[in-house]
Structure formats: structure tokens, C-alpha cells
Amino acid sequence: LREFYRRVQRDSGPEALSPVLLLEQLQELPSQGALMCEYDFFRIVCHSMARLAGRSGEPIHIALISVVGGGDSPVAWNSLKRVMNNLQGIILSSLRRGDAAARCSASQYVLLLPQATYENSRMVCTRITRAFVRQYPHSPARLRVSVQPLSSAE
């Protein structure tokens, strides 16, 4: 459906976009915090940022936050939805405006942390984990975090 929508948008008429209309369409509305997006779009953003990092030499890290139950078992399905919604709010309030995040599975979020060193990326994840534990101390879920550098494909 997304591909069909894009094709309809692209082929909607013979008239070309004016530079002014193009800039209006590309202008982002004022907002705080990270960009929360669908995983497919997140992958495109990562590809673009990896290319940029390859040219600039700036570090980019990816963090994977997994929701697990006690003993690394899965969280009950009826609790998982609530936990993931709560975690999304914490992620959005903990990340910077230039960061991006996406839900990449039923129990995982992935974060894009441009211009962040490995240590800074770990600190961001620690801040998210602590905020989650502080706000939801009786949650059946624990957070497991992994941080890795995003390398360019050069």
C-alpha cells in the first residue's frame, strides 16, 4: 500500500512542483525530542546517516532496547503492549531532537544516535533504563540494551 501511495503521489499530475511549494512540503513542524518513525523509514534514515558519517567521520551509534521478563523470558503478551507504550514515551522524552527511534519488533526499539560516542550512547541507554525503572518500579519487564557503531558501506 505504501508503494502504491508513493506512486500515486508521484504521478498525480503533469504539473511540476515550484521551489516554494517544495520547501513548504519539506518543512518540519516544530516539535521536541526524537523522531519516532516506522522501521522501514528508520532503515532509510540509517542508510542516509551512514553515508553522511562516511564523509564527515562523525560517529553514529545504534542502540537496541529489548523488553524481557524475569530470567530473560518473554513478557506476557497482555503486559507487553502497555510496557512498549510506556517505554516509547520514555524514549521520546530522553532523546535529542536529532535522534531517531523505531519499534523494530514486538518487544524491541532501535535508536539512532548520531554524533554520539560509544560512551555517550551507553549513557543515553542508562538514562532510559533508569527512567523506566523509576516510573514503573513494579513492571514485569526489564530492559536489555546493546549499543553498536553504525558503519558506512564504503
Give the integer mean of the pLDDT values. Answer: 86
Share of helix, binned: 40-55%
Number of strands: 5
User: What is Rg?
Assistant: 18 Å
Cα end-to-end separation? 32 Å
Large-scale geometry: globular
Order of helices and strands: HHEHEHEEHE
Question: What is the count of helical runs?
Answer: 5
Portion in strands:
15-25%
Structural class: alpha+beta
Major β-sheet profile: 5 strands, mixed
The residue ranges in which pLDDT falls below 50 over 5 or more consecutive positions are: none
Strand order, largest beta sheet: 1-3-4-2-5
What layout of secondary structure does this protein have?
Elements: H1 2-10, H2 19-26, E1 35-37, H3 39-56, E2 60-68, H4 77-94, E3 100-105, E4 108-114, H5 118-135, E5 142-149
Parallel strand pairs: 1-3
Antiparallel strand pairs: 2-4, 2-5, 3-4
Helix pairs in contact: 4-5
